[in-house]
Every structure is written in C-alpha cells, then in structure tokens.
Amino acid sequence: MSEQDARSLSDEALNERRHQVVRCRLQGMGLKGSSVRCGLGLTAANKAWQSYQRGGWQAVRVCRSGRPKGSGLRLTKAEQKETQRLISDKMPDQLKLPFALWTRKAVAMLIKDRFAIALPERTLSDYMVRWGFSAQKPMHRAFEQRPAQVRAWKEQVYPAIAARAKAEKADILWGDEAGVRSDDVRGRSFAKRGSTPIVRVGNKRFGRSIISAVSRTGGMRWMVFKGALNVRLFKRFLARLIKMAKRKAFLIVDNLRVHHAKALAPWLEAHAHRSNSSSCPAIPGAQPRGSGQCGLEEERYGQASCTQ
Hints:
By secondary structure, the protein is α/β, with parallel strands linked by helices. The protein has helices at 11-26, 31-38, 42-55, 57-60, 77-89, 104-115, 121-131, 147-167, 231-244, 265-270, 292-301, and strands at residues 171-181, 207-215, 220-225, 249-253, 275-279. A hairpin with a 4-residue loop joins strand 2 (207-215) and strand 3. The longest helix is centred in the middle third of the chain and has 21 residues, at 147-167. 17% of the residues are buried.
C-alpha cells in the first residue's frame, strides 16, 4: 500500500490504518514493514504501536481536535447562496453599490446591506475561495450588443443568403474596417523582473485604416487608406474586389452608414450581376474571426475579442 500523510486522512481511515499497524506488530512484523504494508508513515505507525502498549486497543483509536469543516461560519447556507447569486447575476452598480466591479470591499458592503453582518476582507477571501470565485480580468463587451437580434440574423437571414449564394455559385465575403497608429505598441515581450521592455517609436504620429473582406475559407483581401471610410473609398474597394473575383460575391457588412448610403445604391445596381451587399446587425463583436479588426486584436492581445 502506498504511504499517505496521516494528516490528509479522515478520522475513520486513520483509525483503520492504526489498527492494521498494531495487528501487524502483534503478528511479529517489524515497525518499518508494518508502516509500508499499512500505508502509514514510520512516525505515525510508531505512535499507533506506542498507544497500544500504553492503553490497549482503546488507546489506538484517536479523535483529532478541531471543529468540523464548515462549522462556525457567520453566514447561513441561505445567505451564502443569495450572495453568490447576486455576484453572478448582477454588477455592483446595479445593486446601488458605489463600485463598478466586484471586489472584496464591494462584497462586504453587499453582505452588510443585505444581512446586517460585517465581515473583514480576509474572511471574505475564504468565502470567495469556498464559493469558487477568483479575481479575473473582465472581458470587454459593447453595451449596444443585442444578442436576440444577432441570433435572429444568424438563424433566419444568413441561411437565406447562404442558400442564394449556393444557387448562384457565388462566394460569401465578410467585410470589416479597422485602424492602426504608428505609436501603438502591440503584443507582449519577456524581460527580467523590474526591467520593462522599451519599444522605440517615432515622434511623428500617423495613422492608417484598412478595409477587408474575408471568405468563409479564411482568404482575406484588403485595402489600406488614409482617414475615415467614405462612399468613394468604399466603391473603390468594391470595384477592386470585383476585379479580382472569379465569380459573383455576396459581401456581408455591418450597418455602418457608408455601407447603405443613397449615393452607393446606383453603383450597386449597376454591378448587381457581379456583387451583392447585405448588412448584418451593427453590433460590436459580431465580426467573423479573421477580419481586419480581429486580426489587429489578435496581434495586440494574443486572442481575438471577436466572436465566430
């Protein structure tokens, strides 16, 4: 039997192994052999044998001191359950607490307001660990997101676009725009503790924008330009996209004003045989992985914040 630390055993398991050690000793086995056979350390096995020698079988059984695990808690099970529910489902400001994120101090104030129980922060740390909560960096998610609208678009509109593209033997492309600055430092670098890495950047700042179209197989076509996107630039991108396309393309874009401008409609009608534009809900985070914005996010954070 493999040796196990007696401190990690329950009282019942420890007493059983102590009795086994005594039986082995009474049968003439040595202390070391009894220890190995019964899975107790040499010191624990020796203590069991000495206890038997002093008081017989009654002395072999031990009852360790200390209160039972989980006893002495100031919050009842119902209060703990309610606190966990509030932390999981709400943010502090939604409960009229002067905090934007959950901290030990915020949880302490919540418990005091709800149950009139004041708990120190150190005690709250034990509660949070017991409940399975850990301190984590929040994910950014736009307030304007409308999950129900996105789900309806995915389940109703997109299948119709996919069916039409298949019938017309056309490609489906996802359009997106992004921007980058010359003084924007992206990514992480290893360095000795206390020595922060330095990236040299120029004093003259400039920025560039990129518009891209990503296919369902991951192919990406893009164009770099200065300033903000307007109808003229969007038409230029579409014209270049059609020029290099081997067959008709369905371009899915968000609800940016430029994408459905009135000045763009005549051009789209004139090239309807080669391209078709469709808008998905203008909800941040709805771009497909691999788009320009997602690519820049991957470079900066290591994992894109956009969803598939």
